[in-house]
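Usage example:
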Amino acid sequence: MSNPAAERELEAILAHSQQARAKLDRLHEVLTSTGHYGRGATPATVVYRENKLRLLRLLDESGQPRTRPPVLFVPAPVSRYFIVDLLPGRSFAGHVAEAGFDVYIIDFGTPTDEDRFADLEYFVEGLVRRCVRKVSAITGRPSINIVGYCLGGTLSLLYTALHPATVSRLVLLTTMIDADVKGGIAWVAHQMGLAGESYDEPRLVPAVEIKGWFEMLAPGSNSVMGRVNDLWQRLDDPIERLRDVRTMATWVDDVVPAPGRLLAELYQQFGPGRNRLMAGTAVVGPRAIDCGQITMPVLSVSAAKDLIAPAEGVDAVRALIPHADVMRLPGGHVGIVAGRTAVSLWQRTVAFLSEPARNGILTAKSRRMPRALRGR
Amino acid sequence: MAESDPNPEPTLVERWLQDQQQWQRTLFAYLDSMMKNDEFLVHMGNAMRGSLLAGKPYPSASAPSASATGEEAATADRLDKVLFALTQLQGQMADVLMTLEELRGIRPSPIAAPAKKSTRSKRTAAPAARTAKRRRARS
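Running the assembly step on the lines above writes:
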């Protein structure tokens, strides 16, 4: 007849089975729904092409560019550009464009074998400089605003030091300055053998290798089992949340290969123990970098929980550019730019770009936080 | 006498059978998607690596290609150097074109702003236009 202990056991097995099936049903729903396919969310037109690079100009709903001063977004060349233009309503660049600015985004594209010879000078004095020049030519303005993210911020900073007259305002997002601050992607890459990367005989560093460095930063994601377990746990989340995770995965997991010569040079100049930016001995090609040339208003933003570019290393920009407006936001490296609370950064950036400047440097009054952000 | 419940609670065995049927539906849904949608297999492969990356496979080490001989590798290396030199030239050409455009903007070319039949320079044409304007005002 009935056995209560066996029934309880069967009930538990049944509940477990139902839970696992619900997870698999949710996974199926996510995998068959339209995902993010690696394109920017805002309508845009390509205004310049060079090698794999595309310079995008954002347009409004009627297909027209905006009329306020130009803003050039410079993302990191080792990842995809669309992190600054992720989804409708969740786009940093789109938010700045909505405020009326004429927004441009650099898409560095995906390098192929021959691009392994590209060095820092090629990126700064070649690609970034020509994009700035193109934006100036289109808008008829001798100087433009630049927003650099992560390694794109490093490129923007170096460019600005070399061509200060062409930059009216500079925003640096999670841009590592002091390489001696431990942690972050530079330290992981150092531990995983970046020092061995050859400048003279470069290779195209495979995406899987770069992905490996990022995986080492996040506990639990540096093994297949860890990642699968993490995903399995997440499948209890509501479907909307899972779609959100999928959107972020489309950026986080879609790493591109990188020119070995660029990585070798970045390591030799800005890697742990080198720290030539802080030492004032950085160079781009034959030209020395003098951060004293950067006299225009500068905003530097770090993320309190940044594993890729530790906040202390980012905030060290104060030592190089004493007049820089330095702020730290709660969140991680990607979250502050494209997460659910990223609107704080977007609003702060628009406020900074809109502020009137006096004598080229921010006044104490204009450094104040916008009303919407006070008290956060 | 107590009335019988029209929707009695299913027994454990009945619920077990229902769950088994649901499992079959789940399994068929996956098989159906695999048959109909090639991309679904890529997405499944990514999920089995713990990623919800859409549209392309999760980064993985590519299969080792047939090893090229020393001579082939050297040729490929030289070809890559030539290709990269060409891309650098492309950039320099873009600079030249942008400079030309800037120069055209400073000194409007005849195409951008067609000249009038008068051979007089702008400097002499402007006072002449003013004189004509004054004459018209007087009359």
